[in-house]
Amino acid sequence: MFAKSSNRVAVVASAQTSLKSRWANRQHVDLISEAVSAALKGSGLRIEDVDFVIDSGSDILDGRSISNCGFLGAMGAHHKEESRVEEDGLWAALYGATKIGAGSAEVGLLIGYSKPSEGDVSAFYWSQVEPFYQRPVGFGHEAASGLQAQSYLAEHGHSEEIFADVVAHDWAKAATNPWVETDDVPAADAIRASAVVAAPLRELELARAVDGAVAVVITSQRVAERVCPTPVWITGIGTAIDQHAFARRERGSLPAAKVAAEAAYKRAGIGDPTKLSIAEVSASSAATQLMVLEALGLASPGGAPALYRDGSEIHLNPSGGSLPADPIMATGLVRLSEASLQLADRVDHAPAGATSAVVHGAGGVGMQNHCVFTLEV
User: Fold this and answer.
1) Dihedral angle computed from the Cα positions of residues 342, 345, 348 and 353, in that order, rounded to the nearest 10 degrees
2) What does residue 108 show for φ and ψ, rounded to 5 degrees?
3) Which pLDDT band holds residue 266 (cuts at 50, 70, 90)?
4) How far is CA 193 from the centre of its chain?
5) Interval 158-174: pLDDT, tens
6) How far, in Å, CA of 72 to CA of 365, rounded?
7) Smallest Cα–Cα separation from 90: which of 347, 330, 257?
């Protein structure tokens, strides 16, 4: 739909707040308004030009029903068409891009936000598991991540030592990203020495939940060519969902991520994803990050650890990815924002000469749901 469309959709501007373990002195509205104002500033567009607003958040994490109603002013959604996506922010981008591509609007504002420091992240995920057999015994996101890691190691004969290399790589990248709080960047030895949380995964091998907000402005081709010197074009989108019952899933791989990626590549006309410049991916643990890279076709099954050991032609998470900073419900939209800024060469941590990217977002216990975008300049 997108690569061959006569009305292409572009990311023309984006911004995010600092991603911190805890924003003690800022409320949701403060973070959201900061991201929205920064995204529009210098974009050539005003809030009056925005046709619709789509936001992603969680009533459970926010601690109130229909929580977005309290943030509409900060979003600039007053007297505008506004929709809420109770899923990772990359699904808001899917909704918005489809809307513009279909010709029903020209300018969309996408917002993702989260303050997990004010809630119980484990309880958030417990609310999503099967309620009669799994929830009563405490099965949740961490337990699912541990089982996935065990299965991945068993299926491919790897040592758990590989996980620390993945985490160390992403934290080193995050240290160059001014939007990620990185007071203490752990080395591989410190990662391997951290406490076991869900065997074989250790504390530092699980994604760190952070507070923050992100805003992305997308437009039709006509508007993009008028206001933006370097539009970043959305060329493909795919999405898929795995079984809700964790016991019925393939634990050492992520087939739904593979289906989503294949759909995006087909729409974009991409035959060999290893030729892409950038991969900005979401993961709940070091193990699932390896599984995501394989599902995206960037490595063969079991081959993703070599991307960190031997190096990769594709730049993996130049922003640091979600392991150092996981603003739950906004993580995938942060990946889209980061990839578009890098392709437009608007950030210092952008890889030189990058022209294309694959972006991945996920949601649910054990990364049940997946969304994939492809971009190019």
Assistant:
1) 80
2) -125, 145
3) very high
4) 28
5) 999 999 999 999 999 99
6) 29
7) 330
Q: Which residues have a Cβ under 8 Å from the Cβ of 156 and sit 6 or more positions away?
A: 252, 301, 302
- pLDDT at residue 4 above 70? no
Cα–Cα distance for residue pair 41/355, rounded to 1 Å? 25
HSE (CB half, 13 Å, CA atoms) of 256? 22
What pTM, to 2 d.p., does this model score? 0.96
- Decide if domain 9-120+208-376 falls under CATH 3.40.47.10: yes
Sheet of strand 369-376, all strands in order from the earlier edge strand to the far edge: 81-85, 52-56, 107-114, 212-220, 9-16, 232-241, 369-376, 356-363, 278-280, 315-316
Give the start-to-end residue ranges of the domains of the chain. Answer: 9-120+208-376
**Residue carrying structure tokens 């909704």:** 95
Residue from 145, 209, 141, 142 nearest 180 by CA: 209
What letter would DSSP give residue 285?
B
